[in-house]
Each structure stands twice: as structure tokens, then as C-alpha cells.
Amino acid sequence: MQFKYAHDMTSSVENSPKFAILGAGALGSILGAHLVRAGHSVVMLVRERRAQQIREGGLRVKGLVDFQVEVPVLTDASQLRKADVLVVAMKTTGTAAALQPLRNARIGAAFSVQNGVFKDDELVDAFGRDRVLGSLANTSGELLANGDALFTRNVDLQVGELNGGLSPRAKEITSTIDAAGVRSTAVPDIVSLEWSKFAVWASYMPLSVATRSATWKYLLDPDIAIIVARVVREIGAMARAQSIALSDDSMLPVKSMCEETEDQAVRRVLQAGETFRTKAPEHRMSSLQDFNAGRPLELEDTIGRAVRKAAELGVAIPVAESLYRLVRGIEKIAEKKE
Ligand SMILES: NC(=O)C1=CN([C@@H]2O[C@H](COP(=O)(O)OP(=O)(O)OC[C@H]3O[C@@H](n4cnc5c(N)ncnc54)[C@H](OP(=O)(O)O)[C@@H]3O)[C@@H](O)[C@H]2O)C=CC1
Ligand SMILES: CC(C)(CO)C(=O)C(=O)O
């Protein structure tokens, strides 16, 4: 379906949307489409290939929902004059460079749904700490080759203040997103939740690539479950070294796993594996989707940075570091084959 008019923007109204979304991959498309459907002004900041797809077919979301909307795109981000909210939803690779042309735009508030804990620093560097919120997406999707965004899990997109506490702006942003159909909540402890999710990501991500399997399969394997438990506890130690509290309200009960014995922590991983097997048997980490599609992995900006940070903090993370090196090697070998 070809929409009636071209979407590249010149008018000042269209350059000043309520939501500007950087990256129209799985999560960016899911969010953008829902917000447009709910009547909000949205602009997708994209590169040319995706711009072409969106100009021709709009944003199409399938899976948990099935609808299509038209949305303006901007391929030159420096044309954005202002936006109430900037959502960063591109992969972590190249984010600092992608934020560069947005530095002069008037951004009310910015947050990133990217994985990892170092993404907030990049936003703070670009826009100043006051305008940055923390966030994490316990939301899953996959951008298919035909441009459709497959929406597979709608659990919670959390947003909160980096300094803690529940602010009116976090409540307003999340209630807008939630009312549009993507479950979202304002949380008072986003930094704790980001580190807790990162403790999980630092194990699930490399293991998804090493095993190339659906998430439940490696979580339910008793040997691999021990690796997951050890990584979670190592990243937990990093958080503790920075006086960051951990939370059980994550994809694994990270706080408890760091406090109890290793055997108990392993049992938690096996339980999570069982839940994935029954509730989401097809679930594959976004990292595995990337690897299978030959896209770069978000390894350096997430686990690579953690390895360097751990050295700075004097915290030993040998299992996480070994997985990081394994996946770095796997990625290099895969690149050489092509
Ligand atoms: N997918 C998921 O289920 C989840 C993902 N996340 C995290 O969310 C983030 C986004 O992931 P996901 O939605 O899967 O990503 P996708 O791989 O589906 O899409 C990323 C998009 O970003 C675009 N992009 C890359 N660089 C730029 C740039 N400079 N300017 C504009 N667009 C750019 C890519 O465009 P192009 O087509 O031009 O390459 C691509 O369309 C990641 O950090 C991921 O770890 C978190 C939770 C769940
Ligand atoms: C939350 C989860 C596990 C969703 O798939 C994710 O972060 C990812 O796949 O990268």
C-alpha cells in the first residue's frame, strides 16, 4: 500500500512532534505505531532503507496486535527542532554518533529502551542529566525482513528518574504509552531495575549466541543454568560495589539470587527456563535475532563496557568476561565466513 503523501518533513509543526523515536526497528516501530494509533504526533528518525519501507507501507505491527499506521519519517535528524520526548530505540552500536545531530534540538525528556546500563551516560552527555530518564523494556519484538514488526511480549516498559523517586513527567510519559497499548509504568528505582535486568542480559545475551537456541532451552540445561547464576551474581557484585541496590522485580529474582547460595540461585534459573518453555517457547533473545541476521551484536557497549568497568571497580567477573570473550570470538569467526 502506497500512502498518499511523502513523509519527509519540512514544516515546523512536523519537525516538532510530541514523540521522536530514534530507530524504527522492532521496539521503535511497536512504540511508534501504538502512539500514532492513539492520536499522538510521532516522528521516526530513521536511515534511508527503513525510511523507504515506512514511506511505502507505513508502520505495520503483527503478533499480539495487527494494525498499520502512517507516520512521518526524518532521515536527517538535524532537521528535528524539538520534541517533547525522545525515545532511543536503535541498537547500541553507533548511538553516540546518532545523537550528535540531535544535540541542538529542544528535547523535553529523553530515555533509551536499549539494553545495558551505559546507554544513559550517552544521553546525559548529549542532553544533560536533567533531561534524561532511565528506562528498560520488558517488551519483546522482532523486525521481519518485510518491514513488519512482530510484537511478541507486552510485559512492561519502565521509565523513571535517574535520581530515583516518582516524577510527574515519568508518570505522564508512561501513562501515555500504556494507554496507547504498550504496557508501561513509572518506577521509583529505575537504576536498580536497569542493573538487575543487565545482570540477566549479561548471561542470556552471550548464551543465546553461543547456543543459538530458544531461551528456555539453555535456561533449563543444568550446566548452563550454573553459568547464568554465576554471571548474575558477578554483575550483582558490581552493582553492590557502586551502592546500587538490586531488585527481584526483574526477569530473574536478581536480588535474592545474589543473597542466597549458588544452588538456590541455579534453581531460580531452572524455574525461569520452565516459565519460558510453557509461556514463550519460541522466545529468542534480540541478540540471537541479530546474530542470525548477520547484524552486529550489542556486545561492546553492554558487556564489553561492564568488563572494563569491573576492572576499574576492582570487582572480579571471570564468568561474564569469559562469555564476553567467547561471543567476541564467535562474532569474528562468523564475520570471516562471509
Ligand atoms: N527486540 C526486543 O525484543 C528487545 C530489544 N531491546 C533493546 O532495544 C534496542 C532496540 O532493539 P530492537 O528494537 O530489537 O532493534 P532492531 O534491530 O529491530 O532495530 C534497530 C533499528 O535501529 C536502526 N538504526 C540503527 N542505527 C541507526 C541510526 N543511526 N539512525 C536511525 N536508525 C538506526 C536500524 O535501522 P537500519 O534498518 O537502517 O539498520 C534498525 O531499524 C536494543 O538495544 C535492544 O537490545 C530491549 C528489550 C527487548
Ligand atoms: C527482554 C528481552 C529478553 C526481550 O526479548 C530482551 O531484552 C531482549 O531480547 O533483548
Q: Give start-end ranges of low-pLDDT stretches.
A: 1-13
Quote the distance from N terminus to C terminus.
34 Å
Supply the helix-strand structural class.
alpha/beta
Coarse morphology = globular
Provide a compact summary of the structure.
The chain has helices spanning 26-37, 48-57, 95-99, 119-127, 168-180, 190-211, 215-219, 222-241, 254-259, 262-279, 286-292, 300-313, 318-337; strands at 19-22, 42-45, 59-63, 67-69, 73-74, 82-88, 106-112, 133-143, 149-161, 184-186. By secondary structure, the chain is of the alpha/beta class.
Tell me the layout of helices and strands:
Layout: E1 19-22, H1 26-37, E2 42-45, H2 48-57, E3 59-63, E4 67-69, E5 73-74, E6 82-88, H3 95-99, E7 106-112, H4 119-127, E8 133-143, E9 149-161, H5 168-180, E10 184-186, H6 190-211, H7 215-219, H8 222-241, H9 254-259, H10 262-279, H11 286-292, H12 300-313, H13 318-337
Parallel strand pairs: 1-2, 1-6, 2-5, 3-9, 6-7, 9-10
Antiparallel strand pairs: 3-4, 8-9
Helix pairs in contact: 6-8, 6-11, 6-13, 8-10
The structure holds NADPH dihydro-nicotinamide-adenine-dinucleotide phosphate (NDP) and ketopantoate.
Residues 22-28, 45-47, 49-50, 89-92, 94, 98, 113-115, 137, 139-141, 143, 286, 298 line the site of NADPH dihydro-nicotinamide-adenine-dinucleotide phosphate (NDP).
